[in-house]
Design brief:
Elements lengths: L6 H19 L6 H8 L3 H7 L3 H24 L5 H17 L1 H9 L1 H5 L2 H17 L6 H20 L7 H25 L3
Helix pairs in contact: 1-2, 1-4, 4-5, 4-8, 5-9, 5-10, 9-10
Length: 194
């Protein structure tokens, strides 16, 4: 007897197709009808899993944001050291690259995402990461370096599209830059007068 697709398989297919269409056409220009057509299912079958485009997008963000939520919870229980901040950056880099399609979509659709539930969820996660990476007692320069390390990982995903090389080497280079910024921020904190 042939294996029947599980509900989670269908859910994942819907998420993948929707994210592809959102990236190709933009979120606003993609309809549930188009998603159903691309999947070769009826709108009723699609509604069984998701009622709106935003429901689909939220489910993708929840699934891909899970590792970031776990990272934040882990980091909040750790000592506030350079070693912890470096590990946060490493793990965040892994999570970000695992969710590359979503973050590319978010980057390319910032105006739309800002007004959606997913935009708020991303802001909450980013603010939590900022707080984990910066030392609020540090100088402005050190704080900027710490927060810029996070942006380096994001910007690097897009900048590397214009630099030839092995994707793993590119990713390692981006992470090296982010870790260097954290180390500079820490050195700046350690060298300030008491």
């Amino acid at each position: 007897m042939p294996r029947q697709p599980r509900r989670t398989d269908t859910r994942r297919r819907i998420q993948d197709v929707a994210l592809d269409l959102f990236a190709e056409q933009g979120y606003e220009k993609t309809s549930l009808r188009e998603i159903a057509e691309r999947l070769d299912v009826t709108k009723a079958a699609l509604y069984y899993h998701f009622k709106t485009k935003e429901d689909i997008l939220n489910s993708v963000a929840d699934d891909l944001g899970g590792p970031i939520d776990e990272l934040i919870a882990w980091a909040q229980a750790q000592p506030r050291t350079l070693a912890t901040r470096r590990e946060v950056m490493r793990r965040y880099s892994d999570a970000l690259w695992g969710a590359e399609r979503l973050f590319r979509f978010v980057q390319e659709n910032q105006a739309t995402v800002r007004d959606l539930t997913v935009g708020q969820a991303i802001r909450v996660r980013m603010n939590a990461l900022y707080e984990l990476l910066k030392d609020s007692e540090a100088s402005m320069t050190a704080q900027v370096r710490s927060i810029t390390a996070l942006f380096a990982v994001h910007a690097g995903m897009f900048a590397m599209q214009n630099i030839d090389g092995d994707p793993e080497d590119q990713r390692a280079a981006i992470l090296e830059v982010a870790l260097d910024l954290l180390a500079q921020a820490d050195a700046h904190v350690l060298s300030r007068p008491v």
